[in-house]
Design a protein that fits this description.
Elements lengths: L4 H13 L5 E2 L1 H8 L3 H13 L3 E2 L6 E3 L1 H23 L9 H7 L5 H10 L25 E2 L8 E7 L4 H9 L7 E7 L6 E5 L2 E5 L1 H6 E5 L4
Antiparallel strand pairs: 1-3, 2-3, 4-9, 5-6, 5-9, 6-7, 7-8
Helix pairs in contact: 1-2, 1-4, 2-3, 4-5, 4-6
């Protein structure tokens, strides 16, 4: 059963918004997609018919197992495409999102399976986010926001969440790339901006930036 482009965009939104209990609200979807609530309601009624969500008026949606799988498979196509563009076509990580947005709607499973094979079955995309497998399974990661770290702590930059091209360029300019060790040297009490040390060089990051950077514990510690 082929999905439409619009359905795939809704599925991808469900993937990003669903909470630990498998729930998401119509209002959250409306804001995320910039679509009016009546349109979201109509689409979710269709999703309910396909058994992707459990829909009840005035209650949060519950995303079913099959709904989560369908959503993960759309994300799989997007993240595989981004990885291919970076690893095989030498695009910068800040230049791949828009192209992947277009290619993720290709329906040929063989196309993406071959892409996966050529890349030697990567587990993560260029932004450090896990790539779902062919069954929609995804690797669980134990990550935290850089903003939650304390002074003196050393961590490893592991992922960027839903970031735009401008933010990725901002990170490039500061030589802050994936798997870089980051030492938090100072946190300003006034605005929570953070001074970090990377490769012996100090940089100041805003609270907005540290909220979008995900890190993991430094294995050397």
């Amino acid at each position: 059963m082929k999905t439409t482009l619009t359905e795939e965009n809704y599925l991808k939104a469900l993937f990003h918004l669903v909470d630990n209990e498998g729930k998401v609200t119509i209002n959250e979807l409306s804001k995320f997609l910039n679509v009016k609530m009546p349109s979201v309601n109509n689409m979710m009624k269709k999703f309910a018919e396909k058994k992707w969500v459990i829909y009840e008026t005035y209650k949060p949606l519950i995303v079913t197992g099959s709904g989560k799988r369908e959503a993960a498979l759309v994300v799989r196509k997007h993240r595989l495409t981004e990885m291919f563009l970076v690893k095989k076509m030498n695009f910068g990580w800040e230049n791949v999102h828009e192209i992947a947005e277009q290619l993720e709607h290709v329906h040929s499973q063989i196309f993406f399976d071959k892409m996966d094979e050529i890349l030697d079955y990567p587990k993560f995309d260029p932004h450090g986010e896990p790539i779902p497998d062919k069954d929609g399974n995804i690797i669980a990661q134990d990550l935290q926001k850089l903003s939650s770290c304390e002074e003196g702590e050393t961590v490893v930059f592991a992922s960027v969440t839903l970031s735009d091209d401008a933010f990725l360029t901002y990170l490039n300019d500061r030589k802050l790339l994936l798997n870089t060790k980051v030492k938090v040297t100072k946190i300003e009490s006034f605005d929570k901006s953070m001074t970090i040390e990377i490769g012996g060089k100090k940089e100041i990051l805003s609270k907005k930036a540290t909220e979008k950077i995900l890190v993991k514990n430094n294995p050397a510690e």
